[in-house]
Design goal:
Elements lengths: L1 E9 L8 E9 L2 E6 L6 E11 L3 E6 L10 H7 L2 H17 L2 E6 L4 H12 L7 E4 L3 E3 L9 E3 L2 H15 L4 E4 L18 H13 L4 E5 L2 H10 L3 E4 L5 H10 L2 E3 L2 H8 L9 H20 L1
Parallel strand pairs: 1-4, 5-6, 6-7, 8-9, 10-11, 11-12, 12-13
Antiparallel strand pairs: 1-2, 2-3
Helix pairs in contact: 4-5, 5-6, 8-9
Length: about 290
C-alpha cells in the first residue's frame, strides 16, 4: 500500500518554494508525488510540525573515523578490524539519522568499506548510500600512509589503481600533498609527482571511473589538473587562475570547510596535538577564501 506523509513544510527541490501542509506519496522505496491532497487508497500519516526535504549528500567523509577525537586515526589503529567495522556501522547509522542519504567515502580500508557498502545495499543495517574509494593511494611514508596503499612511481600507482578497481572501488583517491593529521609533514609539501598522478587517472578513465586528489598547495593543485583529475579535495590554497582552469574543465572543489572549523574549535582542547593546531590555523581562512574564489 502507498503511504501519504503530510508535513507542515515540504521542500521538493533545493531552489524551489516551500510547500505548506503538503503531502509526499511514497510507493515502496520511491517517491511517487508531492502535492496538497491525499490520494485514495493511501495510508495517511501526519508528521506534524516537521519539514520534509531531499536527502543531503556528504561529499567527503571517512566512515572509519568518528570525528570525535583530536587524532581520529589513533583510535582506528588501537582497534581490531572487527571493532572498527562496528564503529563504521554506527557512523553510517548516525549519518542517515542526520538526514544524509548519500555519502562519498574518500578513504577507508578497502575490505571494510566494501563490506559496509554491501551490508547497506542489502538492507542489513541502516545507513546512507555509500560511494567509496576504498584505500587511498599515497607514496611510501606519505600522508595517512597508515590507512593507504603505498606506491612509488607510475608503475606501482598503476598496479595499485588496478587492484582497487578490481576490488570494486567506485572511484580512486590519490594523495598529492601533505595534510593536517600527518606527523612530520607539511600541508604545503608535494607528494605524488605528475607522472604518478597521471597513471592513476589513466587507469580510472579506462573503466569510466573518476579520480579525487587530496591536495592543499597551489603547485599541487596545478599538477593535479595537469594530470586530469576530476575533483580537488581540500584545495585550500586555490588561486583565481587555477579556479578558472577547473571551471573550464569541469573539475570540482570539495573544500571540507566544516571539518576545518570543527578542528579549529578544538584548539584549546589539551588533547589536540600542537602540530594539528598549527596546521589547522593555516588552512581555516585560506579554505574560506578558496570557496570565495571558486
Amino acid at each position: 500500500m502507498k503511504t501519504a506523509y503530510r508535513a507542515r513544510n515540504v521542500l521538493p527541490r533545493a531552489m524551489g518554494p516551500v510547500l505548506k501542509d503538503a503531502v509526499v506519496v511514497v510507493d515502496g522505496d520511491l517517491i511517487e508525488s508531492v502535492g496538497q491532497e491525499i490520494p485514495e487508497k493511501c495510508k495517511p500519516i501526519d508528521l506534524g510540525e516537521v519539514t520534509l526535504m531531499p536527502g543531503l549528500i556528504d561529499s567527503h567523509v571517512h566512515l572509519m573515523w568518528s570525528g570525535e577525537g583530536a587524532d581520529p586515526d589513533a583510535l582506528r589503529r588501537s582497534e581490531s578490524k572487527n571493532l572498527g567495522m562496528v564503529r563504521m556501522a554506527k557512523n553510517a547509522k548516525q549519518t542517515v539519522a542526520a538526514g544524509i542519504t548519500t555519502c562519498r567515502d574518500t578513504g577507508s580500508p578497502t575490505e571494510m568499506i566494501l563490506a559496509l557498502r554491501k551490508a547497506l545495499d542489502l538492507g542489513l543495517i541502516p545507513g546512507p548510500r555509500v560511494i567509496c574509494a576504498g584505500t587511498l593511494i599515497t607514496m611510501t611514508g606519505g600522508h595517512v600512509h597508515t590507512i593507504s596503499r603505498e606506491a612509488d612511481g607510475p608503475d606501482e600507482v598503476r598496479k595499485a589503481s588496478r587492484e582497487l578497481i578490481k576490488a570494486g572501488a567506485d572511484f580512486l583517491k590519490v594523495v598529492a600533498s601533505g595534510g593536517i593529521y600527518g606527523r612530520g609533514e607539511e600541508i604545503g609539501s608535494l607528494q605524488f609527482d605528475l607522472d604518478e598522478l597521471s597513471a592513476a587517472v589513466h587507469e580510472a578513465c579506462k573503466v569510466g571511473k573518476k579520480v579525487a586528489v587530496h591536495v592543499y598547495p597551489s603547485k599541487g593543485i596545478e599538477a593535479s589538473l595537469d594530470a586530469g583529475v576530476h575533483s580537488i579535495e581540500h584545495g585550500s590554497f586555490l588561486t583565481p587562475e587555477l579556479a578558472k582552469r577547473m571551471a573550464l574543465t569541469g573539475v570540482y572543489l570539495v573544500p571540507t570547510l566544516s571539518v576545518f572549523r570543527a578542528m579549529y574549535d578544538k584548539q584549546d582542547d589539551p588533547s589536540t596535538l600542537d602540530y594539528i593546531k598549527r596546521k589547522t590555523a593555516q588552512v581555516v581562512e585560506a579554505s574560506r577564501n578558496a570557496v570565495r574564489i571558486a
